[in-house]
Amino acid sequence: MSASGDRRPPGRSPEQEALTDLVMRTFRLNGLFLEVAEHMARPAGLTAARWQVLGAVLREPLTVSGAARAMGLTRQSVQRLADVLVADGMAEFIDNPRHRRARLLRPTAAGWDAIAVIRPLQHAWAAHVTRGMGEDDLRGAVEVMDRLAARLDDDPWRPA
């Protein structure tokens, strides 16, 4: 600690320290979210990872690459999960009118049924977790995360 009481490493700005704090809390929050997601997905016959992939294609069918981009995951990991969802009857691949080889993934009736099992649990959990939090605070957090994600998308430090 410096004489002024600053506990930052030398040469590190307050913004860099704040980013480190945010990253550490994001790691913790991610772990907590995944733990709860596993618990909520289990009654529907899903895992958190399978629910995440199925959730990515609820609004519209996507290619595996498109779903991977939306979730910030590798195409290979999403492909494995998509294949399991298809094998389990929760999702299906359909022809893509824009690309012959890159088929689109969408939920089946069984996939929608699984989501219907999870939704009430998710809604009750979200109501509990957000109690006493303002929408503006939550939207502000989303905005900061979106801005950081946009910067990281173009970050030269990311591996190719």
TrEMBL record:
Q: Which SMART domains match?
A: HTH_MARR
Kindly indicate whether the keyword Disulfide bond belongs to this entry.
Answer: no
* A Gene Ontology molecular function term of the record: DNA-binding transcription factor activity
Task: Note the superkingdom of the native organism.
Answer: Bacteria
Organism phylogeny: Bacteria, Pseudomonadati, Gemmatimonadota, Longimicrobiia, Longimicrobiales
Q: Name one GO biological process term.
A: response to stress
Which Pfam families does the record match to this protein?
MarR_2
Protein name, entry field: DNA-binding MarR family transcriptional regulator
InterPro entries in UniProt = HTH_MarR-typ (IPR000835), MarR/SlyA-like (IPR039422), WH-like_DNA-bd_sf (IPR036388), WH_DNA-bd_sf (IPR036390)
**Residue span, HTH marR-type domain:** 16-150
Q: Which UniProt keywords apply?
A: DNA-binding
